[in-house]
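ok trying again, last paste got cut off:
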Amino acid sequence: MTGQIHMSGFFLQAALVLFTLASTSFPSSMASAFRRKDANESAPHTRWSAWAIGSAVGAIPLWPWALDILRADTRFARDWIATLVPRAPYTWLVDSLGIDTPYVYRPESLWFLAEPRIGGVPTYGMAVAHAALIGIALYCLVRWVASIRRPRLVSSRDDGNLWLWIHAAAFGMTALLMLAGVRARTHYLVIAYPLPFVWLAWLLLTHGSTRLYRTTVALQLANTITLMLQVHRDGGVANGAYGPSYRAQSAAVTLR
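nice, full thing came through this time. structure:
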């Protein structure tokens, strides 16, 4: 049913099924290639029959939409750039850091980096905050990569269900979006929330420090507050993704 919330939900569910099979069902699959499996280890039982019945029932409202798609004259145009450029993993990272302001501001994203403006004078506080967040992420990512001894795309059962979801979303869903030639935009990850943020918290606390974690939270809070203050001050983002705010639109109608 997640695919009925957003198209990316189909990719997430497909990745979750594949990763569940790889980590629990087939000893010769990807899971055994990235982790050591004890001969006496018994894989947890997945209730596939319950999943199949639930998926079939949940897909009932999907059939009218699917029939309309099949009858439509338009056809899906594959975007080879989306396959070659890892946009989905990039979106995963910048979304979790809270620095995807170009999605909101578009041509005015560089203008936002000069915020907050005090008395009309730019302070470039947001540029400093963005640079700090990128620096913290790169530092922790480098330490994480350096600590990897045996690459593992599929989580083991000892990691728990949360890591199964994170691995399926971070590796599986993003890879399937790229293979399908779908240009993954920021809102495509709405179906995976809050997994990118859980992953970032793990990265900061495991390969950074509590101080870096708190600093990241404070910087993200500053970004959010500054963005909201700017939207309130200027009546939205005229040339951005959302345009003028409702208050600004109402004021324009009143003046007429």
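cool. The first strand starts at residue 117 and ends at 118. The two ends are 45 Å apart (CA to CA).
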